[in-house]
Design a protein that fits this description.
Helix 2 (44-52) packs across helix 3 (56-67) and helix 5 crosses helix 14. The longest helix has 26 residues, at 221-246. This protein has three domains: 3-88, 2-Layer Sandwich (Gyrase A, domain 2), CATH 3.30.1360.70; 122-263 and 379-429, 3-Layer(aba) Sandwich (Rossmann fold), CATH 3.40.50; 442-587, Orthogonal Bundle (Isoleucyl-tRNA Synthetase, Domain 1), CATH 1.10.730.10. The protein has helices at 3-18, 44-52, 56-67, 94-103, 133-151, 167-183, 202-212, 221-246, 257-262, 265-275, 327-338, 355-366, 402-409, 411-419, 431-435, 442-460, 471-474, 484-493, 496-506, 510-532, 544-568, 579-590, and strands at 29-30, 40-42, 73-79, 83-88, 117-121, 155-162, 253-256, 279-283, 299-303, 314-315, 343-349, 372-378, 381-385, 388-389, 427-430. The protein has a five-stranded parallel sheet, sandwiched between helices. It has a four-stranded antiparallel sheet with strand order 1-2-4-3, covered by helices on one side. A three-stranded antiparallel sheet has the order 8-9-10. 37% of the residues are buried. The radius of gyration is 30 Å and the shape is globular. It has 22 helices and 15 strands. By secondary structure, the chain is of the alpha/beta class. Strand 3 and strand 4 form a beta hairpin. The protein binds one RNA strand of 77 nucleotides through helix 2, helix 12, helix 16, helix 19 and helix 20.
RNA sequence: GCGCCCGUAGCUCAGCUGGAUAGAGUGUUUGACUACGAAUCAAAAGGUCAGGGGUUCGAAUCCCUUCGGGCGCACCA
């Protein structure tokens, strides 16, 4: 039970005392933006005033009477139009801090998801080349969202949809065959227009030689296309998975488009819609806003997606009776629903706008409106160095590969920056800024704060035995010795479960990145108070109980940071050593 | 033409799903190291939340509209 829930419960009973029937849905208990308004604030009086036939300030007065008795509340006041501001006792927060120390890395875990089956589909890059800069953002946001939803108590499947049925994989096969001929000594010259130019297919050609020798030389395409395609696709998928593992992304489910297309799922999906009476033959209006020279009205097999909010019905079959191009995606979502998911989240680039509108109606139809599809679109990423666009790498065929990015700045920086803001906007990813060891680099700033916590705790062992500093031991420490200087730190830490809840319900992992900076900032501020005033330092030689209380809070800070960074997939380092620092130490040691 | 997203401090961005005097960082100005890591901290200055209208106790947030930017819009894969 967090302090927020405790106070909310007390408020609810206070309200019930006045009127037990009233709807309290809109009542909130939150820390006010301005700390001078107190620790917590509620809008209850303003929200309920009308239905209870009182003016807000009058109602607030009555609620305050009821809340007076709370042992968690130190003082109450009515403010502005009818806010009730509460100042809490120091003690009110201790349960949360102790909980943090007990929970460790699990701190902040919730059960708001109640085990609901969620499918998050992300990356889903075509298996025709390596992961590159354009793919990374959605990959990281998706993966972090998975972590977040798991933290909030959802049952999450991390899914990769594997487009191995389109024409691109045939192009891949043709390119691989060309590389294969090259590997056997043929001079293939420049890669022709329309095939994949990257060098990464050379090793595929070589690998085919090693497995099959000259078997596919001088053969008709019809003979080699399928086996080479299978081989090349497998090879690409292995490569992509290795690339993803560089930034700690590992999917749990891989679904093949080819399976969906070939195992009858499309027919089942179509028939399901037909049985629901949602299929008819009709004619679409001409496409708007485009000059159509060859358009003519044609009766088509249509799905009544307009019943589910789409602006027009969608053709599922072409005029020749074959499936329309959206049908595999529809079949795929039919499959997801059959697997029991009630929430499907899909991470796509902004250039896929309209996907939710197109596929969402079928999800609603298949599930009788019990399942939902949510698409998160992310903007483009520009990779820069010192503010200048990074040159494309020739080696990989005019793309910046994920592998190169990891080599350049490391996985932590990539993850932090790629998920660190709302997905909507365009993102400039500047190699130089991302590596900077200073405050304007949040990755560094946060990791530094965590390392500082660890440093303090290391020093703590000079005053205490290890046994006295275990999390269990610290959880039993008398926190009432903490004072005003620590209050801000405490307030920030106990907010973590709320942040998880808010971020998870909004599907917005970037909030975690902002929170983690808030924690770091509070900690660095707290730390610095000890510089001006020695009595505010963490370690006070002649006051062990106070020191223990502070160490408990330092430890709670480290735990909270670690817990949040864990969701982000960023390492919580215990020590940071820059080259400069190391050099200094080496010089000291040598001199 | 229709739909979606965006417009917040000089710059880069938050803004808790409708709350109080709109916040950080950076940049500018000014202070603080005989330290448990100054790789930091504290303070000042900086705003017509693109413009206009509406909804209500209350709007950056919701609705309408104008302007400006991005993306999508066929039986295409």
């Amino acid at each position: 039970m967090t302090i927020f829930k405790t106070i909310m419960a007390e408020l609810e009973s206070a309200i019930a005392h006045i009127d037990s029937q009233v709807n309290i849905e809109k009542v909130t208990v939150e820390p006010p933006r301005d700390p001078s308004h107190g620790d917590l604030s509620t809008n209850a009086a303003m929200v309920l005033a009308k239905t209870l036939g009182m003016n807000p300030r009058e109602l607030a007065g009555k609620l305050i009477e009821q809340l007076q008795g709370s042992e968690n509340i130190e003082s109450l006041e009515i403010a502005g139009p009818g806010f009730i501001n509460m100042r809490l006792t120091g003690k009110a927060y201790f349960t949360d801090i102790k909980q943090c120390l007990k929970d460790g890395i699990e701190y902040g875990a919730l059960n708001i998801g109640k085990g609901e089956k969620v499918n998050v589909e992300y990356v889903s890059v075509n298996p025709t080349g390596p992961m590159h800069a354009g793919h990374v953002r959605g990959a990281v946001i998706g993966d972090t969202l998975c972590n977040l939803l798991e933290k909030a108590g959802y049952d999450v499947a991390r899914e990769y949809y594997f487009n191995d049925a389109g024409t691109q994989v045939d192009v891949l096969a043709r390119t691989a065959h060309l590389r294969y001929r090259e590997a056997l000594g043929e001079d293939i010259g420049e890669i022709p227009e329309g095939l994949y130019p990257g060098d990464y297919l050379k090793e595929v050609g070589q690998a085919i030689v090693e497995r099959d020798g000259e078997k596919w030389l001088n053969k008709e395409e019809a003979e080699w296309l399928v086996p080479i395609r299978t081989f090349a696709v497998d090879h690409m998928m292995t490569m992509i998975r290795q690339d993803l593992s560089l930034i700690n992304i590992e999917h749990t489910v891989f679904t093949n488009e080819r399976d969906i297309v070939e195992n009858g799922t499309l027919e089942k999906a179509f028939n399901t819609l037909d049985d629901l009476g949602l299929i008819y033959t009709g004619t679409l209006p001409p496409p708007r806003g485009k000059e159509m020279t060859d358009w003519e009205p044609v009766p088509l097999t249509l799905f009544r997606s307009s019943h589910f909010g789409d602006d027009q019905d969608r053709p599922l079959k072409k005029r020749d009776g074959t499936w329309a191009y959206i049908m595999p995606d529809i079949g795929y979502h039919y499959d997801k629903i059959k697997r029991g998911f009630t929430l499907m989240i899909n991470l796509l680039g902004k250039d896929h706008g309209g996907y939710e509108e197109r596929i969402g109606p079928t999800v609603a139809a298949f599930s009788k409106e019990k399942a939902k599809l949510k698409v998160i679109y992310n903007g483009m990423v520009k990779v820069l160095k010192d503010g200048v666009a990074v040159k494309f790498s020739k080696r990989s065929g005019n793309i910046i590969t994920l592998r190169e990015m990891v080599e350049e700045v490391g996985a932590d920086a990539i993850r932090f920056f790629m998920m660190g803001r709302t997905p909507d906007s365009e993102l400039e990813f500047d190699y130089s800024k991302v590596q900077e060891a200073s405050k304007d680099n949040p990755v560094f700033y946060v990791q530094y704060a965590h390392a500082r916590c660890c440093s303090v705790l290391r020093h703590g062992t000079e005053m205490f035995s290890e046994k006295e500093l275990t999390d269990d031991a610290l959880a039993k420490v008398d926190l009432s010795l903490l004072g005003e200087a620590e209050k801000e730190m405490i307030r920030v830490l106990v907010n973590w479960p709320r942040i998880v809840e808010q971020a998870a319900t909004a599907f917005e992992p970037h909030r975690i990145a902002f929170y983690v900076q808030e924690v770091a900032s509070a900690f660095n501020g707290w730390w610095s108070k000890g510089r001006g005033d020695a009595t505010l330092r963490f370690l006070i030689e002649d006051n062990k109980p106070l020191t223990l209380a502070r160490l408990a809070l330092v430890r709670a800070t480290a735990i909270t940071l670690a817990s949040a960074l864990d969701v982000m997939g960023v390492k919580a380092v215990e020590e940071m050593r820059s080259d400069a620092l190391e050099e200094e130490e080496n010089n000291a040691a040598n001199g």
